[in-house]
Amino acid sequence: MPGRKIADALDLLKPDYKHVGKHRARRTAKDRWAEFAALALASALLSGGGYFGLQSAISSMATPAPTKNVVNGVDLSTPITVIDGTGTRLYAMRIGQQLQDAKLVVPYSRTLDMTLADTSITIKKEEYRALAKRIQLIIGKLPIVLNADAKYPIEVRLGLGFKIND
User: 136 Cβ partners below 8 Å, 6+ apart?
Assistant: First the structure.
């Protein structure tokens, strides 16, 4: 352990930076608070800059929403979800690919472990009926059901007994 420093004449003076070098003057409580405030401000600026920089980078790399693609009054950019509840695990990807080949947006093709009783095209709003009729032209005649509580805007629900039209 180092020995105690022997006080000299400079140590006995008031903390006056005009007569004593800053490295030799005693630090007062005001000096310590000023240093703490400066470090806290620098820390807040660096943290905030990092956070907002990361958010900016993430938003620039995120996948944008599909652009509107309206053909004959039908918005083809409305997302369509294909749900396979046939119990066979054969149709979700095939139907989803058929719809994508027809230039429709299919973000999800899901296979359920349970079976669905009936096959239908479920729409959330009446304005999606024209797109549902377009889906019927691609995959075959399925009943169109209006359900305002549906999870997705348009769901192609494949139930027991569904057979694909090849």
Answer: 121, 142, 144
**How far is Cα 142 from Cα 50, in angstroms, rounded to an integer?**
52
Query: Using CA atoms, how far apart are residues 124 and 79, in angstroms rounded to an integer?
Result: 12
Residue predicted with more confidence, 1 or 74: 74
- Spell out the residues 6+ positions from residue 98 whose beta carbon is closer than 8 angstroms to its own: 138, 139
The answer to whether residue 75 scores a pLDDT higher than 90 is no
pTM, to two decimals: 0.56
Let me know: does 131 contact 75? Beta carbons within 8 Å.
Answer: yes
- Picking from 164, 161, 155, 159, the residue whose alpha carbon sits closest to that of residue 114 is 159
Q: How far is CA 17 from CA 7, 20, 22, 25, 163, in A?
A: 18, 5, 6, 7, 90
pLDDT of residue 43: 97
